[in-house]
Structure prediction request, 150 residues.
Amino acid sequence: MSLWDSSLATGNPGIDQVHEATLGRMEEVLEAIADEDATRTERLLGELAAEVSRHFDEEEAEAGGRYLTKEHREGHRLFVAELERLRDAFSRRGLGPALPLWMKSRIVNWFRFHIATHDIPLARALGRAAQAAGAGTPPGATPGTAPAAS
Ligand SMILES: [Fe+2]
Prediction:
């Protein structure tokens, strides 16, 4: 079962590659939990947390203040905090029936929801901006229109 599907494609190959890899890492975490392998689960959760934080930092840097909404940035922070809460609970209580439910409902589903509601619109906005810049369109002008005579 793949957690990635084409409905999550943003149209930005770099972002899509990272999202697919992140969902792949989440699949590995779920497999390690199903195998009741606490050592592997701990290692994979650490890798997931590091990769996601790096990805959010890169995404925020690429988007800059103009295209990244406050809600988008706040979503990143909430996700990092939720993943830390899960890791903390795992380190205190170990594997248990709540862990796969937590992973699926609050980590995987959140990430997929975030892609659909924030990352796809962001990638489209960045794509339009890059297209406008490539066409030499002045900032704020509609691509394909002639500049006003001065
Ligand atoms: Fe994002």
Observations:
- The helical segments are 13-34, 38-67, 70-93, 98-134.
- Residues 137-150 have pLDDT under 50 and may be disordered.
- The chain is about 75% helix and 0% strand.
- Residues 72 and 97 are 31 Å apart (CA to CA).
